[in-house]
């Protein structure tokens, strides 16, 4: 990849993140109420004007929104995401504790979903219109139609009735403390996430596989006597890889910010729960920090997908050099 291409992508990534920072900041300030109201509830109405002014000064809410933004953005350039208005803990520490949980959950869900989705997509595409094709598509449609919160709730209810297991945030075990204990806690939420992901990957794989299977080079390979297994994996699946990689990259970026419901149901202290707590308490620093991190993850994953494109398809490398 050329230096010009890399510089252009980096500039675009930085511009996207600045735009996200501005939008999130403006939207949060446009919401009714503030941190004081969210923290004190109905007791906020009993505050005197001097008490409210003192609290606004303490939380840094007495300055103009423009000043607040540049103060926060200036700290961001130095790696400081601010301090939680609710707990007084630096946001970087809160994110540092929550990110490994969400990252592990996302990786585990992808490890389960991608192989299952690709294999069932190939299975369905190998006999289009047959019973197994229609069956796989029907199961995939069901996996996409059922909301995650329904699957998660049913799973927790089943775990409670079958094993007397009820998720609790206070019982979370990190992978460093106990690999087996951590896996027992993370496996079921990962399976819940993997259902919809596998269905999405399956549908993408089926479409890309059918398109590649009708190409001239596939007929030529079969005419030369290449084994069917080699034709399917080396010729068809390899050339169907770009749409699959795109979907996997998009879904992984989504997982880093879209596990809120599953983390809440299974009481996992990840980014989703941290973001939800920040929203409920109107903790501006937490919401801004987590949202910016999720946006950065999407941007980086998108860049990684482009790199994989160029490894899978030499034509994109030549187009990049001409550009």
From TrEMBL:
The chain crosses the membrane at residues 12-31, 105-126, 138-165, 185-202, 240-266, 286-312. It comes from Actinocatenispora rupis. It is found in: Cell membrane. Gene3D superfamilies: MetI-like. One of its GO terms (molecular function) is dipeptide transmembrane transporter activity. This is ABC transporter permease. Belongs to the binding-protein-dependent transport system permease family. One of its GO terms (cellular component) is plasma membrane. It is a multi-pass membrane protein. Residues 99-309 form the ABC transmembrane type-1 domain. PANTHER family: DIPEPTIDE TRANSPORT SYSTEM PERMEASE PROTEIN DPPB-RELATED. SUPFAM superfamilies: MetI-like. Keywords: Cell membrane, Membrane, Transmembrane, Transmembrane helix, Transport.
